[in-house]
Specification:
The chain has about 575 residues and is α/β, with parallel strands linked by helices. The protein has 19 helices and 13 strands. It has a domain at about 5-315: Amidase signature (AS) enzymes (Alpha-Beta Complex), CATH 3.90.1300.10. The protein is globular.
């Protein structure tokens, strides 16, 4: 079958697409009647193709960026109706691919991302695509400037093929008593995990949400389904690591400040960070380098914290022997084994039998690869039985029940930062912004409730908007100091120093919270599956498919090169990622 006839055959799946996506894909129709002769070789298979695979094929002349983009668009055409991974598709993507192909033909290759299609979470500014954060109020809004990381990626030759779905405003809109389910937003509704793309059938949660969690507020769905090569997510409390784990991806939450946050709709800049999500460690490392700036960004004061590697190239750290001699700690307390705090009957944390078995297997892999496993190597702030000193008792205020006057037992930083930083971000959008303040956005949502602007309410916006940036500054600073004490001083820094560790090994996405609160880097790697068995069971006859479950490596500030080395060696020793079934 010729390439053009292949495209014509595959495009029959378009009829199920929303009209806007059909329009975005319309240029592909022209390829079905290509004037040029078809190539002798079979079309390049984009499913699970790595970025090095794609670059090698383009270098050999077996693939063009246009053909690559077309292959991804066709997968979107066939499966987007089942997964709902994207908010918008770049209508000029083929023209951008042609321009990069022309550069390559002239002998100019910008680097490993040249001509590679990637997606950005839709809270990251793009000026050639809308940036909506999934909010009805921001439908169609094009910001007046690009995010720094967007500019960096485009200068590196990456093609922004789409804006990926997300939980609305990075899941800082609706919290308890009516929390917003993961990957829901008012613009596009629910998205579905490709490892089980079905609705939750339980009566109490039968609102369209997925039966298998998609993870945090960043969508890894399209990357898992090979709609694009990789994607960029953002993480305030785990929304790079959690969706990467849930979609069997490699995810990196970098050190706070390694990647510029300029041009990203914030929750709180004290914790916000963007990170790569990909199917392999190599792809994630390449994307991380493309996102990073060569010098500190004057628009983000935090970006002077880490020195980029030479050429912002993390590929030299892809060492298959990287685990040999590495010291890896096993934080048993809370992460693996449940803890019981003084005065409490219930336990906190711990793993179920299937999860624990998988992690014990992972530890065996570390040992077989020559790592020195320190077991146990407990995080002090999780091992203590004193409730006032245990990090498990110190969450962030996140719901209507934690408004002013009822927020003594939680950190106010997220709600304080969402008032301080969100309003500051809105001010950068200029007169074309849909709203000028968080108060205006709340009022807009209330006025458009019947249109679906706030299906789950806006409790998190409410508790944020009542904060006073000046009057509540001292309380925020005190809570931030406690955060640092429990997550850093008596947290990750303490356990690494006590046992002279390169990293600790955490189960699934469990390490995301510690890394996010401490600002230290973490990388999660696919490893296996565990049963999808929620506390409220599925009805008889619903055969829930298993959930992906990976392992996390957490290290000290600016240790991304070492973590990439560890993660790559683990990945090469195991090769446990498998593509979603049912998506050929």
């Amino acid at each position: 079958m010729s390439y053009c006839h292949y495209i014509s055959h595959m495009s029959r799946g378009w009829r199920s697409l929303a009209p806007v996506l059909v329009l975005a894909l319309a240029p592909v129709v022209a390829l079905a009647s290509c004037a040029a002769p078809a190539a002798d070789h079979e079309p390049f298979a984009v499913v699970e193709a790595t970025i090095p695979d794609l670059q090698a094929a383009m270098e050999r002349g077996e693939l063009t960026s246009r053909q690559l983009v077309t292959g991804y668009l066709l997968r979107i055409a066939l499966y987007e109706g089942r997964l709902n991974a994207a908010i918008s598709i770049n209508e000029n993507v083929l023209a951008e691919a042609d321009a990069l192909d022309a550069e390559r033909a002239r002998g100019t290759v910008r680097g490993p991302l040249h001509g590679i299609p990637v997606a950005l979470k839709d809270n990251i500014h793009t000026t050639h695509l809308p940036t909506t954060a999934g909010a009805l109020a921001f439908d169609g809004f094009v910001p007046p400037y690009e995010a720094t990381l967007t500019t960096n990626l485009r200068e590196a030759g990456a093609i922004i093929i789409a804006k990926a779905g997300l939980t609305e405003f990075a899941n800082w809109m609706a919290g308890p008593p009516n929390p917003m389910p993961g990957n829901y937003n008012a613009l596009t509704g629910f998205a579905y995990n490709p490892y089980d793309p079905r609705r939750d059938p339980r009566p109490a949660t039968f609102d369209g949400r997925p039966a298998l969690s998609t993870g945090g507020s960043s969508s890894g769905i399209g990357t898992a389904a090979s709609f694009w090569a990789a994607n960029v997510g953002t993480d305030t409390g785990g929304s790079v690591i959690s969706p990467s784990n849930a979609n069997m991806l490699v995810g990196i939450r970098p050190t706070l400040g390694r990647i510029s946050r300029w041009g990203i709709a914030p929750v709180t800049l004290d914790h916000d960070m963007a990170g790569p999500m990909a199917r392999t460690v190599a792809d994630a490392a390449i994307l991380l380098g493309g996102m990073e700036s060569a010098a500190p960004d004057p628009n983000d004061r935090a970006t002077d914290i880490c020195e980029p590697p030479p050429g912002r190239d993390y590929r030299p750290f892809l060492n298959p022997d990287g685990l040999r001699g590495a010291r890896i700690g096993i934080p048993r307390a809370f992460y693996y084994d449940p803890i019981r705090l003084d005065g409490e009957e219930r336990t906190r944390g711990g793993l179920n039998e299937a999860q624990l078995a998988l992690m014990e297997e992972a530890i065996t892999v570390l040992e077989a690869q020559g790592a020195v496993v320190v077991d146990p190597a407990d995080v002090p702030s999780y091992a203590t039985t004193d409730p006032s000193s245990n990090f498990a008792t110190w969450g962030f205020c996140a719901g209507g029940h934690q408004a002013k006057g009822a927020d003594e037992d939680c950190s106010v930083n997220f709600k304080y930062g969402a008032k301080r930083d969100f309003n500051a971000w809105l001010a950068t959008l200029g007169p074309g912004a849909p709203v000028a303040t968080l108060t205006e956005l709340r009022e807009w949502n209330l006025a458009h409730e019947r249109a679906g602007a706030m299906k789950y309410g806006q409790a998190r916006f409410d508790i944020s908007d009542e904060m006073d940036v000046e009057a509540d500054r001292a309380r925020n600073e005190a809570d931030m100091a406690r955060d640092e004490l429990l997550s850093r001083t008596r947290g990750i820094d303490a356990v690494l120093a006590e046992h002279d560790l390169d990293a600790i090994l955490t189960p699934g996405s469990r390490g995301a919270g510690l890394a996010a609160r401490s600002g230290t880097p973490i990388i999660v790697v696919p490893f296996g599956f565990v049963p999808n068995e929620p506390a409220q069971p599925f009805p008889d006859g619903f055969d829930a498919r298993p959930a992906p479950f990976g392992v996390g490596f957490t290290g000290a500030n600016c240790s991304e090169p070492r973590l990439i080395e560890l993660a790559y060696a683990f990945e090469q020793a195991t090769h446990r990622r498998t593509p979603p079934t049912g998506l050929p």
